[in-house]
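queue> pop job 88
queue> type: inverse folding (structure -> sequence)
queue> payload:
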């Protein structure tokens, strides 16, 4: 009989003690995650009796923790979320954009994750809304949703936002639908430049206000030289915004979206084994023809990386902007449908779909060639 598949819970059970000895005590938020993951679907969380309505057999089922960082609990949450989104789709092509930041910013993300992740959302959203509304480009008010991912394939820190946006928006009087071109949304060079400007303007403002987002070696007051060099490097580094051509129709779009929304830093099917206090897991090497390779990390280091992706409690990982901002979403969607001349809740007409497999291939290959970074590497 083969051994039970390795779970993140098991790694925590075996190495939490070693982690706290070597790295330090878990924060309150981390403690919560460790507790939930290790007790998920065990007797610790209690259970309920389940009676099969076909054969009457009674089985005991343990309760799930429903923590958003628990690898076991994402599927159900995703289904619930998608069901609600079903009514919000518009019968137009949707674009997928990814906003990435240079790795030089990682020390700030580690020092003050909440402020930096908020800034990443704000700078990306402002950029999109501004450029879309500019008559030189689309000249429309748009709406979109943004999803934060913080990881790369090796559980390293790689903060980026996935943005899903309908290809078009409302005119300034909100009476007409202004469609974007079918295979081009907004110029990524302009988006990248404006995004960099907005992001770094805020970083500089926080430096002037002495906000505690800097690690001591980059502190603008104590290390002005190091800070300035770092800032210069950031202006010179590539700030890359990707834009993927539209994916299929509304239904396919929703399935596509589901790949991004409810994820944790690693899915458990990538875990292979524990050997000699090291965790062995699979990762995809996009620089080597996307080959799947085993990677081995010291178990404590594995836990450290996993916990690096625990978000501040109450932090919203999926956010809505512009026309889709929470308060006015229903009313604005109604305006969009009227402008598009479609009845309420009829997002069915299928947009001609691109060949998804080859399209994905080309897009990823192109991004890789341009930047050496693969925006899909967050996917399992
Ligand atoms: Zn769970
Ligand atoms: Zn991602």
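queue> result:
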């Amino acid at each position: 009989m083969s051994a039970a598949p390795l779970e993140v819970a098991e790694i925590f059970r075996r190495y939490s003690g070693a982690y706290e000895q070597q790295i330090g005590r878990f924060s309150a938020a981390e403690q919560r995650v460790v507790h939930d993951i290790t007790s998920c679907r065990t007797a610790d969380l209690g259970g309920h009796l389940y009676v099969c309505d076909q054969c009457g057999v009674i089985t005991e089922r343990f309760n799930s923790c429903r923590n958003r960082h628990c690898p076991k609990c994402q599927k159900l949450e995703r289904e619930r979320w998608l069901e609600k989104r079903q009514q919000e789709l518009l019968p137009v092509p949707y674009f997928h954009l990814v906003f990435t930041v240079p790795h030089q910013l990682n020390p700030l993300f580690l020092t003050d994750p909440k402020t930096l992740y908020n800034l990443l959302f704000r700078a990306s959203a402002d950029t999109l809304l501004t450029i879309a509304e500019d008559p030189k480009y689309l000249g429309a008010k748009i709406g979109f949703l943004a999803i934060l991912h913080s990881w790369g394939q090796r559980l390293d820190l790689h903060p980026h936002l996935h943005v899903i946006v309908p290809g078009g928006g409302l005119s300034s009087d909100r009476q007409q639908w202004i469609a974007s071109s079918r295979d081009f949304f907004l110029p990524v060079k302009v988006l990248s430049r404006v995004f960099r400007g907005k992001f770094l303007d805020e970083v500089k403002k926080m430096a002037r206000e002495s906000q505690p987002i800097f690690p001591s070696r980059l502190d603008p007051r104590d290390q002005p030289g190091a800070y300035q060099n770092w800032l210069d490097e950031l202006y010179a580094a590539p700030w890359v915004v990707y834009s993927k051509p539209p994916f299929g129709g509304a239904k396919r779009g929703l399935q596509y979206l589901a790949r991004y929304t409810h994820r944790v830093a690693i899915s458990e099917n990538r875990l292979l084994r524990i050997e000699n206090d090291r965790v062995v897991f699979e990762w995809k090497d996009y620089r080597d023809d996307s080959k799947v390779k085993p990677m081995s990390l010291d178990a404590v280091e594995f836990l450290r990386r996993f916990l690096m992706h625990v978000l501040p409690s109450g932090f919203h990982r999926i956010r809505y902007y512009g026309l889709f901002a929470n308060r006015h979403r229903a009313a604005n969607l109604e305006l969009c449908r009227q402008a598009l001349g479609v009845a309420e809740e009829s997002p069915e007409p299928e947009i001609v779909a691109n060949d998804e497999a080859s399209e994905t291939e080309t897009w990823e290959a192109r991004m890789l060639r341009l930047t050496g970074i693969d925006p899909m590497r967050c996917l399992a």
